[in-house]
């Protein structure tokens, strides 16, 4: 689409329009923007896009960034990345000896493969077969797309760059994955009012604009060779524990120790031995920080009350599920599992606490 050159905002476009008055609640067929939301004023380097009759939307010149949470995820993924690089180099050495191929070819292909994170056909395969998502039907698109356009317009983001997906689930949830995937569950689509659905989508948009989605997937993607070799060796060792195959078992055990020692040495060099044991907890802490940053993004767009309502609903569901699980566990004579420090999401009271300045 063609975008005109930047120009100043007309006095009649935006904050002082009479249909943006306070106290007017949105309905399902109307705009999903909360009453206090205003359209963004164009910065000098912003782009202008005409969005509907009599309405002007400003697209930010830089719609993506890498915030502290995304940087933290990339830094914490360095040990797995280096271990995978060593594995690919070892595989290249074997291919060089056997087939005469350049030893650096597997490592180069592995590095280039990271660009597939932003390749649309690859994203479609990831959404369909890995995440279990499906394209919205025309009826679902009629419900979802206007809310998405409203959220992205408020954020100054070109919403057409992203792809909307549906998950067949009765849970209240949504996803931001890869470079352009935004998914919502059918329960969220059908049960949430438009304003609350917009708050959920604004949260997921915050994951994309902050770089959380692509940095998380890149860290997982580039760590696959190292984790794959470790799992194969461990699984093979479990099936070879027989007296007749002690020699093979000892060899695999030595390989396991070598790979584990290599991984430990890599992390020890990068972070030091004291941080080696707490690295998984740091990774989970950065994941929780990314969730709070996405909450902040939605709240800054004016969706804090609606997001708080969604979180309170989620909290009530979690409490009921926890009580049911606790009753079942006590009936079997076991104690309930403690709260894990490796949780990827903060608890709902913490998220509500961070939303208080916006309410």
Give an overview of the whole structure.
By secondary structure, the chain is an alpha+beta fold. 58% of the residues lie in helices and 7% in strands. The chain has helices at residues 68-76, 78-99, 105-112, 120-130, 138-155, 186-191, 194-209, 212-222, 224-239, 246-271, 273-276, 279-331, 348-355, and strands at residues 47-50, 56-59, 133-134, 163-167, 174-177, 181-185. The strands form 2 sheets. The chain has a 4-stranded mixed sheet, sandwiched between helices. The chain is globular. The relative contact order is 0.11.
Helices and strands in order:
Layout: E1 47-50, E2 56-59, H1 68-76, H2 78-99, H3 105-112, H4 120-130, E3 133-134, H5 138-155, E4 163-167, E5 174-177, E6 181-185, H6 186-191, H7 194-209, H8 212-222, H9 224-239, H10 246-271, H11 273-276, H12 279-331, H13 348-355
Parallel strand pairs: 4-6
Antiparallel strand pairs: 1-2, 3-4, 5-6
Helix pairs in contact: 1-8, 1-12, 2-3, 2-9, 2-10, 5-7, 7-12, 9-10, 12-13
